Amino acid sequence: MALYRVEGIVLKTRELGEADKIVTLYCRDQGKVRAVARGSRRPRNRLSSGTQLFTYGEFLLSEGKNLDAISQAEIRESFRGLREDLARMAYASYVMELTGEMVEAKEPNEPLFLLLLGVLHLLGEDDPGNHETIVRFFELKLLTLLGYRPHLRNCVSCSNPEVSFFSPALGGMVCRRCREQVPGATEVVKVAPGTVQAMRKLDESRFHGARAVKPGATINREMEFVTRTYITYLLEKPLKSWAFLDMVRAN
Ligand SMILES: [Zn+2]
């Protein structure tokens, strides 16, 4: 049986049978890979800690007929802090679900892998007050890296610099005049000028510069509404982790 080694992050786990787990990894060189971790739900199993959600490590996989199997997991970073704090866990779970849903299997994207790893570090270590902005930054960069960069500079339809709506169908801002004419005009989201400004700043930021953009709670909520609407349009469904995130934030 052919063996191969990957460097990856545990994006998702699902129970299988009595003691096994199906693990979805996001790998530096291979993109999204699914594999079974046999026995990993038994206490003291050698795969149990290395196959927990958020773990970054090196994995040895063996090719299977239907599903590959993880035969070794060597932890590089367990991101334990993300599992011990409910708010950090909620943000990180969303980041994982968004990545897992937006990427196709076995389509490598190293910049996205590095972005994901960097964001997990920030969510684990940075001040909780920065988490919203970090996640907004992640959404914009992920969309960009996958070819869905939202057009924010001016009206995506006529280049008018005065924009006040976001159209998920057109993937960008539109002006008042075009709003009436574009298909799916009913699905546009009204966006305040301060929100567009903050999105542009984040869109132009590099990794550590993003924390210097301090949009404030109201603008953050509006940015979130815009990205959720856009992501729901792209995936044709909402994400499950949104409900968890909303519940944690409400408390
Ligand atoms: Zn226009």
Keywords:
single chain, 251 residues, alpha+beta, OB fold (Dihydrolipoamide Acetyltransferase, E2P), de novo design (two linked rop proteins), 2 domains, 8 helices, 8 strands, binds zinc ion
Secondary structure topology:
Blueprint: E1 3-16, E2 20-27, E3 31-37, E4 56-62, E5 68-77, H1 80-84, H2 86-102, H3 110-125, H4 131-145, E6 165-167, E7 172-174, H5 176-181, E8 189-190, H6 193-204, H7 217-235, H8 241-250
Helix pairs in contact: 2-3, 2-4, 2-8, 3-4, 4-7, 6-7
The structure holds zinc ion.
Task: Kindly provide the radius of gyration, computed on alpha-carbon positions and rounded to a whole number of angstroms.
Answer: 20 Å
Average pLDDT, rounded to a whole number, is 94
Sheet-strand content, in percent, reads: 15-25%
Strand ordering within the main sheet = 1-2-3-5-4
Structure description:
The protein has eight helices and eight strands, in the order E-E-E-E-E-H-H-H-H-E-E-H-E-H-H-H. It has 251 residues and is of the alpha+beta class. It has two domains: 76 residues, Beta Barrel (OB fold (Dihydrolipoamide Acetyltransferase, E2P)); 170 residues, de novo design (two linked rop proteins) (Up-down Bundle), CATH 1.20.1440. The strands form two sheets. The protein has a five-stranded mixed beta barrel with strand order 1-2-3-5-4. Helix 3 packs antiparallel against helix 4 and helix 6 crosses helix 7. The model has no long low-confidence stretch (mean pLDDT 94). The site of zinc ion (ZN) has 8 residues, from helix 5.
